[in-house]
Amino acid sequence: MSQKPIKRDEALKPFSREHHFNLLLCWKIREGFKKNVEIKRIKTYVDWCWNHHIRHHFELEEQYIFPVLGKEHTLIQQALKEHAALRQYFTATSDIKEHLSLIEKELDAHIRFEEREVFNEVQKNATPEELSIMEKNHQAPISDNWEDEFWV
Q: Which of 18, 91, 106, 132 is deepest in the core (most CB within 10 A)?
C-alpha cells in the first residue's frame, strides 16, 4: 500500500521544495561516487549548495518553524542536533570523501524526518500568524544552473 501524499500548508511549501532540491543533492553525491568522479568536483558543488541555499534554509527553519513547537520539544531537539552535525559535515576541511558520504546519508534522513514528523507537527500546532510569518520571511526559489553536471 502506498502512502498518501502529505497535504502541506502553503507557508511550508517553499521549505518542502527546498527539501526536494536537497534530496537531489544527496542523489547527485551518490551518483558522483558511483561514477568515480573526482572528490574535489563533488565538494565544490556541495559547498556551493551549502553557501547559497542549505545554510540559509537551516537558519529560516530555526528562526520561524522550530519555535512553533519550542526548543524543549523532542522533535525540535532532534532537528537542532541534526542541523549541528550537518553544519560540521558541510564545513569540514579534512576527510572530505567521508564527510560527503555523511552528508549524503544524514541529510537524506534529516529531510525525511522533518517532512514526515517535524513539519506535520508544526502544521498541526502553528497559529495563522506563525504560518503567515513563515511565508513572509522565506527566501526566493532555488536556482541551480551548475555547469559541471558530474552526476550525469
A: 18
